[in-house]
Each structure stands twice: as C-alpha cells, then as structure tokens.
Amino acid sequence: MEIPVTGHTGLIALLAHPAAHSKSPLMHNAAFRLLGLDYVYLAFDVDEPAIGDAVTAIRTFGMRGANLSMPNKQRVMEYLDEIAPEAQLAGAVNTIVNDGGYLIGHNTDGAGWARGVSDLGVSLPGEKITVLGTGGAAKAILAQAALSGVREIAVFNRRSPRWPQAEALTAQIQERTGCRVRLWELNNDDPVCRERLREEIQSSCLLSNATNVGMGRLAGQSCVPDGSFFYPGLAVTDAIYAPKETELLRLAREAGCRTQNGDRMVLYQGAESFRYWTGQEMPVEQIMPLMGL
Fold first, then answer.
1. pLDDT tens across 75-89, in order?
2. Among this protein's residues, is 73 annotated catalytic?
3. Residue 111: which of 90, 96, 97, 127 has the closest Cα?
C-alpha cells in the first residue's frame, strides 16, 4: 500500500556516521507501507559532535523518534530526558522515542539479539553463555542476557588500554542483575588463555561474537582458533552480517553447531524500535526477504 506523503506524515530518522549503507530505511519504510502507517524513515549522516543539534531537531520538527549507531549511542544520552533500564545497563541508546517533546532513550540491540537467539532454539534463563568482546554490540548483548535471566556469562576481551572499562562493565552488570559475569583475556597466543576459552565455550549453551573480527580488514579471521573449540549442537551467533558467513560461523557450522549471522539481530532490533514508535508489531516475515533472510 502506497501512502502519500502529506503535511501529516510523521518523520523517523537514522542518525549515524556513515549512514548511507544502512538497511534501516528499507526495512522501516516497507513495514510502514505494509501496515498503512503514515510515516517515513530517512537516514541522516550525523557525527558525534553534531548529535546535540540533531536531538534539538527531533524536538523542533516533532519527529516521532530516531535510531542511532556508533559513535552516537553514548554521546546522545546526555541530551535525553529519560534513559530506559536496559539502555542504562548497556551504557548506550540506539532508539529515541519522542512523546510530546519528552525524549526517552532505549536500547533495542540486546532485545534483537535475544529474539534471534530464540530462533536458534535457545532459552536463555538459567543458562551459561560465552560472549566475545566488550564494545557497543557486546554491551547490549551482555545487558540483555543478564536481564533475561542468564545464570552465568564468560566474557572474553583482548587486553588493551580499555581493559579497565571492560572490568567496570562486567562488574556493574553482575552487581545490578545478580548474573555471574567473569572477564577473561582473549589471547590465543597464550596457551593458558587459549585453554580457558576452550573450557568456557565447552560449558556454554551459546557463543556470541560481538567483536569486529571477521569483517572488513579482519575478514577471514576468527577469535576462535579452530573447530575443536566447538561441540555439535552448540548455538553460535555473530553480530557481523557482511560477510554473510564469517570464518567463526564457518568453523562452527562445520563442527555441527547451529549458527546465525547478524542479519536477524538487525531485523529484530528494528522491529523492537518499530513497536516503540508505532505501537504495532513489524510484519517481520514479510520484511525478511528484503533483508536477505
């Protein structure tokens, strides 16, 4: 159904840098058409220094809301009126809802990841999982996993100048949720670290990669050295969606694991944002072919 753009049409936007590559406009505008909703979704290239001005524009233009990507997810928080609990825990906002000029920040990345995990047949409450990374995507995953009732999370991260921030993140999630969260060094050149990674994966029901290893200049690489670290039936997800199958997912698939790339996380986080803005469920089954699913 084609909805003509009029003076009543509501505006929702992506505020990102870069923004042109995003699948979000395709996904949301298709959903608006399918449901006959009078909204349009546009992508704007907005870098971190301009995010305050962009938030002012949301209020000034009466926009229904916006999505954000890095590096804007953290900086935007200081300009909002309220931060939802999951966004507070993750320390990042990817969705803004404008309720009559009152701006609420949410984080739907974790909910998108959790819904994707459920498609693999994984029920999170009471389970142990392993997560690779402590960056933006990892923070959302860790927060959602803990809020979903995961019993224990083993987190692996490379030791860098940001190690203290990783320690603070994992300690905060454990303190606020009661989930046991342990941080380990990711260093496959060290036999002790390598064996620790193997042990934690083997005792988990799910492994989630939230690093950038496997994409861009790191394409063809994997944080997990080889297929012997996996076991048949283990669920393995990767937040990366280009390439469709990372080296990690290839190794896992060949070891008999259930695998999933980042496409469903992107789709489902968008569906959660869509619900916040419109009060309706995104018709994800009809949107999937547009996302290559």
1. 999 999 999 999 999
2. yes
3. 90
